[in-house]
Structures are given as C-alpha cells and as structure tokens.
Amino acid sequence: MSIVYRYPCPRCSRVTNLSDGAVCLTPTKDGGVCGYEFPVELLEFNGYVREKIEKHSQQPTGVFRGEISFNTSTGFYLQNLSGARAAGDIYLDVKNGYFCTYITPSGNSAIATLWSGSATNQFAVSGYKLPLNSKLQNIHGHYENLGPSMLFVAAPIDVVVEYPTLANPDEFRVLQSGNVIAAWNTAALSGFAGSHIVIK
Ligand SMILES: [Zn+2]
C-alpha cells in the first residue's frame, strides 16, 4: 500500500511519479536520474515546513487567533507525516476544498491536543491530516479529528494523486487502478468524490 504523487518535482521541475521511499526517475542529460526523494529527517525539510513542524510540536502560548494542534514530540510528528504521506486513507475535505490523507496511528486514543484560541479551550485529537493541495516540497499536516466535511475517497491501494496539469488546470485528481475516482477544482471550488457529487 502506497500512494503515488504525480506532482512537479521540486528538483527537476518535471511532472514525476513519486512515492514514499522512491526517487524521481526523470532522466538527466548525463544519463542518470534526477533522484529527488521525499524529506524524512527534520533538516531535510525546507524552512517553511520546518516552521510548521515546530508549531505542531510546541505548546502554543498566550491567546492566539485560530487553532493550533500539537504533540510535543517532533519525532512523533515526523513519523505521522511520513505515515500519512506513504499510506493514509484519501479524503476530500469539502469545507476547505482539498484532498488530504488521514491516519489514526493509535486508533481512537488521543495522540495530540488541539487548542482553539487559547489554552483554556482545548480538545483531544486522535488523527493526523495531511492536505495535498500544495507543492510537493511544502506538504505538511496537522492533528485533527474526522469531521462531517471529510468525505472518504479511497484506501491507499493503487492510488495516484495528481497535481493540476496544463490539460486540467486548477484540478486535483485522484485515480485508482487508472480510473479517475475523484476531482476537485480549486478555481471553481467544486468537484466530485466517488458516488458523492460535491458542489461547494
Ligand atoms: Zn525530479
């Protein structure tokens, strides 16, 4: 079980088919291959994602706008990121308008805390959600429970997630066994998932 990401490669810029633990096979002029692979260790991520990782592995202080979810272990966060990237279940988040993968590494048990606005307003969460609507090198997740806006699309079996292309601009797609089973257009803010028709 693993998910293939058909996204532009951060190193060679060509559309590649990348999965966890594999490398970009785009040929180079000297007869080799590009060789890009997903970052795993903290220092392999870019500064933008490292900041996000820090945010989700440190307790927020004071009063803040919005929500922050965190588990105090950077190692656990990185393990969750890799796990969700490799083989999470695919969902369409209809509220936020993107595909994501989702894992619950400890079943129903809490793995993190969600703070909404301040430390006095906190909730236990059991899942890790990885939105897929960014460039490959910027993909990162956060802790969240499964809400009603999350539509199940597919288990990670023979699944390809496709970044928008020239042929399908603004449209993320999910293919399973070669068939398009879901799509979301980020400009029209509409799409479909399986037998569900979703119009936002
Ligand atoms: Zn490449």
Features:
200 residues, mainly beta, 7-stranded mixed beta sheet, 2 helices, globular
Explain this structure to me?
With 200 residues, the chain is mainly beta. The chain has one domain. It is 12% helix and 35% strand. It is built from two helices and 15 strands. It has helices spanning 47-55, 74-87; strands at 3-8, 15-18, 67-70, 89-93, 98-103, 112-116, 122-125, 128-131, 142-143, 150-154, 159-162, 171-176, 179-185, 190-193, 196-199. The strands form three sheets. A seven-stranded mixed beta sheet has the order 2-1-11-12-13-14-15, covered by helices on one side. Strands 9-8-5-4-10 form a five-stranded antiparallel beta sheet, with helices on one face. A hairpin with a 2-residue loop joins strand 14 and strand 15 (196-199). The chain is globular, with a radius of gyration of 17 Å. The two termini are 31 Å apart. The model has no long low-confidence stretch (mean pLDDT 95). Zinc ion binds next to loops.
C-alpha termini separation: 31 Å
The percentage of residues in β strands lies in 35-45%
What is the C-alpha radius of gyration, as a whole number of Å? 17 Å
Extract low-pLDDT stretches. Answer: none
Order of helices and strands: EEHEHEEEEEEEEEEEE
- Can you count the beta strands? 15
Task: Give the topology.
Layout: E1 3-8, E2 15-18, H1 47-55, E3 67-70, H2 74-87, E4 89-93, E5 98-103, E6 112-116, E7 122-125, E8 128-131, E9 142-143, E10 150-154, E11 159-162, E12 171-176, E13 179-185, E14 190-193, E15 196-199
Parallel strand pairs: 1-11
Antiparallel strand pairs: 1-2, 3-6, 4-5, 4-10, 5-8, 6-7, 8-9, 11-12, 12-13, 13-14, 14-15
Zinc ion (ZN) binds next to loops.
